[in-house]
Write a structure and sequence with these properties.
By secondary structure, the chain is an alpha+beta fold. The protein contains six helices and six strands, in the order βααβββαβαβαα. α1 packs across α6 (110-121).
Length: 126
């Protein structure tokens, strides 16, 4: 299984959401998920390619607020040609990311850890 996730790097419109989401990185890294922080600018799209045939593209966040209150949408396509195009774009984006290693994650500071926990506790509001 090769799971790679591109997440916002330093450029974000909501630092508290970035802190809240980082709360889960340790579990993901331990499970072998690759976490890539996008460098150039803010990245807000939600894209996934599964097994080179199924893709989804859109704006919906996987949180309660997006599912119940926000007007967001994703579309899914079951097509190898489309999935190949999406995957090519994702691979280009991966080249503009910094890889977050488990070692780097474990070395983050005390105040960063406290910030992650604090903002995670209020994440239902984002």
């Amino acid at each position: 299984m090769d799971v790679r996730v591109i997440v916002p790097g330093a450029h974000t419109d909501s630092p508290n959401v970035r802190f809240a989401s980082r709360y889960h990185y340790g579990v993901l890294l331990e499970a072998g998920v690759g976490i890539y922080e996008y460098r150039p600018t803010m990245m807000h799209n939600k894209v996934m390619v599964v097994d080179g045939i199924w893709s989804t593209v859109g704006s919906i966040n996987f949180v309660n607020r997006s599912m119940t209150k926000n007007a967001e949408v994703n579309f899914a396509v079951y097509d190898r040609a489309f999935a190949a195009k999406v995957e090519k774009m994702v691979l280009a984006d991966l080249a503009r990311c910094d890889v977050l290693t488990e070692s780097q994650w474990k070395q983050r500071g005390f105040f960063t850890r406290v910030g992650e926990l604090f903002f995670f506790l209020f994440s239902e509001n984002y």
